[in-house]
Amino acid sequence: MTTETTEETGAVTRRKATIIDIADHAGVSRSTVSLVLRGSPLVKAETRQRVLAAIEELGYVYHRAAANLRQQHSQVVGLVINELTNPFFTEVTVGLEAALSERQYLPFLTHTDESLERQERLLTALREYDVAGVVLCPVLGTGAELPAQFRRWQVPLVLVMRHLGDPLENYVGTDDYHGSRLATEHLIGLGHQRLAYIGGVQALGVRQERVNGFRDALATHGLDYRPDWVLACSPTRLAGRNAAQELLGRSPAPTAIVCFNDAVALGVMHAVAQSGRSVGRDCAVVGFDNIADAALVSPGLTTVSIEPQRIGRVAAQLLLELIRHPEQTGRTVLVPPQLVIRQSCGAH
Amino acid sequence: MTTETTEETGAVTRRKATIIDIADHAGVSRSTVSLVLRGSPLVKAETRQRVLAAIEELGYVYHRAAANLRQQHSQVVGLVINELTNPFFTEVTVGLEAALSERQYLPFLTHTDESLERQERLLTALREYDVAGVVLCPVLGTGAELPAQFRRWQVPLVLVMRHLGDPLENYVGTDDYHGSRLATEHLIGLGHQRLAYIGGVQALGVRQERVNGFRDALATHGLDYRPDWVLACSPTRLAGRNAAQELLGRSPAPTAIVCFNDAVALGVMHAVAQSGRSVGRDCAVVGFDNIADAALVSPGLTTVSIEPQRIGRVAAQLLLELIRHPEQTGRTVLVPPQLVIRQSCGAH
DNA sequence: CATTGAATTTAGAACGTTCAAAATTTAACA
DNA sequence: TGTTAAATTTTGAACGTTCTAAATTCAATG
Known about the structure:
Number of helices of chain A: 13
Distance between the termini of chain A: 73 Å
Structural class of chain A: alpha/beta
Low-confidence stretches of chain A: 1-12
Mean pLDDT of chain A: 92
Strand order of the largest sheet of chain A: 4-3-5-6-7-13
Helix content of chain A: 40-55%
Oligomer: homodimer
């Protein structure tokens, strides 16, 4: 029986049914019920029916925590994301969730809000809940020793979008270098000779990659790389506008601007228009990320698309591989980006 | 000893240390270690030191799943959010997480992506992981019987931002009616006589509340409510722009537009400007939500601020109350919104 | 109708913790 | 020093599952 009465309220409370209640109700043993629950072919069809009926009747809910305890492994994967407000990361998590739930893993999503302290708290919480692995987009200022720590802890770890420089770390991100190169070469192909780069915070490895792609594309085509035409700024629309205003005031001014991301690019477009120039005609602009606004704005923003969902899926796949083969290290997967051509670069 | 050798690899593997390993190492019993872990005052200071040293030395990690199993309750709370890409919800979750982790609960964040099927999968998964309660922003099309189901399941449930109409449901949201009224009365106070309302999907209860606030504010001040000046459209910038274009083409045109949310309002501002009118001077616009862009755009968007973090905190508090007193039902908390005055309404 | 092997089912221990109750040690006092 | 109470520690069962190995049932065969 699964009903009992509590003293305080006098109300009838239904204790949650367990596998034993099902067993009693169906007239079989715990083990048989367990086999049915896991879809084993060992049980006779008729018995299975009886058990399933009992499950239905008692409203039984499988207790995964107990099963995991016994089986010594969990089906939960921690997702530690630094900035959920950024739609890009939301997309990454959508890809992660899709790939994980296909393989019966449950993603445990978690938000550090770019705070190192929160990140530490969350990582130990996940460890205490015995997750099978962790996908982490580390907060700025995360120590490079974190991957080694995870190895010691024996918890598989995949970094996404930001890496820490440990040669043994497992990392999934975009091919920033080639994406940036792609964008730059497109502009050069359109005949531009005076190209500038705007955006990104110096400290970020991502930015370095993108600037390198820009630099090398120029070099390959025999164009000058002018350090004074490479401006850093925080990755926002406002900062992009300010930086562009300054740059466009110089003489000569660039005729094409490669931007760190779309937010910056939108700000840059704004500044270009305000300076009396036509975006695309007098000054070409390309972005990076292909956010939703890039298509909606007018003229449309030419940009490098990095398929965030795909990155999520790839990260999930790598993590599942690591769960199977924990000894693997140093895997890096760079998802190749694609150029999406719209009007902001003057092409059609 | 916690080291052993696996046959396959020959590598030394460190089995995760348990409370028993700590007990042996410190020369005490399981129970004593357990008491130390839970910060009990019963253990002698010197013993505690010895145990803590052992914990440190063996790199022990508390196994919450096992503890929860024994204690028959978990410290995990499910957060089921329909649209994480919406920065508003991200803010709500930040508030939830903050309030929950203060009380030692761990928020298990989850994303339905506005899919009913995903929502169902996630809810059963959370049940299987035996969460202490659930905070849910239900997907469109969720059946009104869901709260009753949760009651039968004996899982405390708090709805946020969207309710289902069950009189016993527990709900935390904004006071849409008064927020909308506030915005409308502000415009009336500035002398406007021809007011229109744009945005929101008919089916949503939220929209009905906001339109009611708009209507009643008009009535209170003896102004006509014209149903043909109340336009529904999906809550996006683009849809807002289209709706406003249509509306501004009529004659007479409204001199003030109350919008369902800020996204719509930004689209409306765009249309107003395109029609050759000055936003604020010729046509006032107010939004709802106070998203980040509202302050950045020019002119600044006057809008109703609903403090999403606060909503998250309140929802968390209510849930924790329900976990303590599961018999409570029918609680509704409406967080009062505030008017943030910028330039888009012509005031200063 | 035994016998055999396959098919199906089961008992008991185990996973890592905490609870209740009991056992032991320590301190205080006459 | 013995007695008592308080302080501290421990034992064994329990939480809901699954594993291993063994037990039982069934069907087919000679």
